[in-house]
Amino acid sequence: MDAETFSQGLPRVRVSVVLMDGCPPSYWRSFCHMAGLRRPSIFADYPSLKTGLVTDEIDILLISISAKGFAPAGRTVKAIRNGQLGNDPFLPVMVVTDSPSPDDASLLVNSGVDCVTVRPLTVGKICERLRKLALNRQPFVVTSDYIGPDRRSKPRQPKPGEVVVPLMQVPNALYDRVVNNQPSAARSAPRAAAWEEIMRQRLVRCADSMQLLASRSFPQAVAGDLNVRVLEDMRRIADVSEIAWKRMENEGQAPLAKHLGDLTQRMRALVKEPSAIKTENLAQLQNDINVSQNGLNAFLEGAAAEPQRD
Hints:
This protein has 310 residues and is α/β, with parallel strands linked by helices. It has eleven helices and seven strands. The longest helix has 35 residues, at 188-222.
């Protein structure tokens, strides 16, 4: 698509802006007008955004933040990507800010944002970002704790035994609006199908992550080496187990949900009181992780996810 054709589609784009930096709404209305975009909807805070993401038709979300807004912006984007906020987890999201520190930039990237645009803004810069998001959006990856654009610098060959995280082409509201002039109603079925695959991939990653973290941390714990990394791995097992637990509850898989809930609570208790970590309870936890993985795999294959203890 050439620049002229792309520009012809911009007036159809529905832009929403969250103002968290004191910038007056008139600035963004004027800026969108100069860029050839339609008049944007403006949200003055995150609570109003929560309502707007459900009631409004949005093709791209711009979050304009100050130096103190990185953490709230990151939480908001992560909630969108996890299906906890709004009805489109694949909504293109751009954060506009002043020069972020490396930690701030990492926080935003790890939330699943599509791009971070640094002021000063120009019409050309914003239009170029929109063009890339519409025509060359990064495919998504799914791990146990991340859903969002692939951030890896370049493909590499996986090591023997390494879990390969597949790339996923996801629905793109901006492309559908600019290129196809597609109404929002036409996107619901592809979006639902993509979300179902995202949730399936997340369970796969949860099962794999629990085993990987256990194989890395439990032998050291048995040897008495309860260093920071070992305890962090055990905390991550609890976090991942909790994700799977909540999903199984939502799916009506009561036996497996209860098993995962018990595993989560026992892992959290051990991380809180490392002195209680003994060889025998680690052996039981490893068995419970094996049971969890088998149950999740059975669920993914369409079988009844009844945990079978050894």
